[in-house]
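Bug #77: duplicate submission created two jobs. Keeping one. Sequence:
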Amino acid sequence: MNKPDIHGAGETGSSSGAAHGQQVTPDHDINNRLFFRLCQAANQYERTAHRELNISAIQGVVLGALSRYMPDGIAFSSFVDYIAVSRQNLDAVLKRLEKLGYVERVENRRDRRVRMVRLTPAGARAWETLGGRTVEFFRHAAAGISPEEKIAFTATLAKVTRNLRNLRMAGDGREDLRQEDGMQEGMGEEAGGEARRLDEGGDAGRVARG
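Kept job's structure:
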């Protein structure tokens, strides 16, 4: 069984290409490591931001972005593209911030068909406080990284974002995934039963969870 390469980046020898009998090239391996690290960093960012700032990463991004569009706000459709999330996900985040009284959606004075998203006075005050802590948060998170490395990394992430935005793969892999899910359904139920037995097994259960 292959183990995560905790000193490198990503899973070694366990790529999707290898699973389908395809040759794993050095280029594929480094791509796999790159996106594993991106996912890992994003997850860690989310956890740490919630712990240290008492707000989710995406909520902080939304408040910070809206602070750039005060006082009128930004059209919802434009905001979706700016944040690079789905309409449904952004709507859920905005609803949470609306409940907190930090954000409101209003009609565009020039075109009532357009909904504008903007900070409320309470939201502006919250961001003023949070913004100061965010500066310190980012300073610690970027410790040991030179200005040149930050500039190069930012440019690289922008390229990756553009590539992902424009990516259109031939075919539809979702059907293959559904077929694999169906084949493994019985195995999953059996594994679930075994996991429950381990969980009920005292010390063995605690080791499994650890």
